[in-house]
Amino acid sequence: MEVDSTFFSLFPLSEIQQAALSVDVHFEQVGSQLNAQITLDGTIEVACDRCLGPFDLPVHFEDRVIAKLGETTDLDSDVWILGSEVHELDLSQPIFEFAHLALPTRRIHANEADCDPDMLDRLDGPEGGGDDEEPMDPRWNALKELK
Ligand SMILES: [Zn+2]
Q: Domain segments of the chain: what residues?
């Protein structure tokens, strides 16, 4: 199954707008219990923490949903209870949640060279930056050209 922006647009509270994820669901029955092992692989578009520019972040996430047959449907507990009126297991909610769990807290371009240089200039005020590298003295550039 492939999951993209159409999927995430179904959820009004989605932090994710654009994504290209392949979702693999592996079902395993253990006694009266059904385990759905869900694996997400692909990219999610996020804003870079350093330059605020959007980029496709590679993600991989695995978790599972455990379901049991029961009297009354309850999809809020750790183990889902599926009542007799449920004929299909809808995994869109856990897939949506897992995609958000797959996002790391720190999201930056893997390579600083991919960051938007204009934005970095604007964001790097006199107070900010901290341990950023000192700008190179222009005289060094002249030396480089002598090589
Ligand atoms: Zn960036």
A: 2-116
